[in-house]
């Protein structure tokens, strides 16, 4: 059979791909325009729930539409109180901030800082991100300043609108307080949104990073233990709590409003209970203090939750409650041991060093949850900042190393 030869002609094939469509980048806006929009939106979102609740209370009480201005002034005053701005009505001064509202305000301001940074082109794709803290501050200063300035002006304006001859709110104090809160919160949001936090965080020594993380987790664990203690106490003393609630004789809606007020202040109560668990306790006005070893009850606020206050110091068996903060902080140490590959001695040292920043955080928490509630007898409410800072930091410094070492060495001991 004759072989047939096939000749293939090789041709170069050129693949021509269409050019990708040009994507128009969103134009950058000025930092002042972005800050004005984001700050206004943050203020609106945090102010709306207060206004809705105040309007609902007025409507259920059968007030006329002529009270609309009073609703607005009361809502503005309550909104400023959530920022820590004190309110004065004659000789009565209220400065105890509703911490649940404060948490919402801080969250919205963090988002405002993040959105402002993104709007001016400081997103995560920023090129040549600096790691030097001074350069980071210089880069984010316009965003922080613009948000703080815009939000501070809104706070000052709210103080002017809310003030009446019988209700006094300092516009200067409102401007400074809301502006500083906005600067701190927006700075955190801008730092996270820009991606600059990672570079700054990596410059912190490794052992210090572990200590800071453990401190934050330990303080949150203490606050969680305090919240659990409040819940257990309310459940155990349900009869006394219900008696205080029924004594108001305000009907179902009024009782719901009182319950809502207690819920708004629930984070503050958790901090007070945490201070009680670690030892120093808290104050409830003149002649009233509550701690593990000393309980002095005078004229206490007529709130249902205070019906669950202990009326005597703990007994020797009740002293076991002191193990609660140690167990809570030991959890923070165990989480540190789970995430870290440090050797056991350095691990225990990092967990022990966490007591220092934890003490600072506890002191700040006590400051934010303390204040007055009107009358002179209720001028001092909350935990004493230096006492809670000292004992809270000590609880973390003792419990966290125990938890870390137990998590690391426990499996080895059981295998033997």
Keywords:
4% strand, 416 residues, 2 domains, mainly alpha, 3-stranded antiparallel beta sheet, flat
Shape designation: flat
The portion of residues forming beta strands comes to under 5%
How does the major sheet shape up?
4 strands, antiparallel
Quickly give the structural class. Answer: mainly alpha
Element-level helix/strand string: HHEEHHHHHHHHEEEHHHEEH
| Major beta sheet, strand line-up | 5-4-3-7
Number of helix segments?
Answer: 14
- The radius of gyration is 28 Å
If you average the pLDDT, what whole number results?
86
**β-strand number:** 7
Number of domains: 2
Fraction of helical residues: 55-70%
Enumerate the spans where pLDDT stays under 50 for 5 or more consecutive residues: 1-11, 19-26
Query: How far apart are the termini?
Result: 83 Å
Please render the helix and strand layout as text.
Layout lengths: L30 H30 L7 H14 L5 E3 L2 E3 L4 H21 L13 H30 L8 H23 L2 H8 L2 H31 L1 H9 L4 H14 L1 H13 L3 E3 L4 E2 L4 E2 L26 H17 L4 H10 L1 H14 L4 E2 L6 E2 L2 H31 L1
Antiparallel strand pairs: 1-2, 2-6, 3-4, 3-7, 4-5
Helix pairs in contact: 1-2, 1-3, 1-4, 2-4, 3-4, 3-5, 4-5, 7-10, 7-11, 7-12, 7-13, 7-14, 11-14, 12-14, 13-14
Describe the structure in your own words:
This protein has 416 residues and is mainly alpha-helical. The chain has two domains: 31-203, no CATH class; 206-415, no CATH class. It is 64% helix and 4% strand. It contains 14 helices and seven strands. A four-stranded antiparallel sheet has the order 5-4-3-7, with helices on one face. A three-stranded antiparallel sheet has the order 1-2-6, with no helix packed on it. The longest helix has 31 residues, at 206-236. It is flat. The N and C termini lie far apart (83 Å).
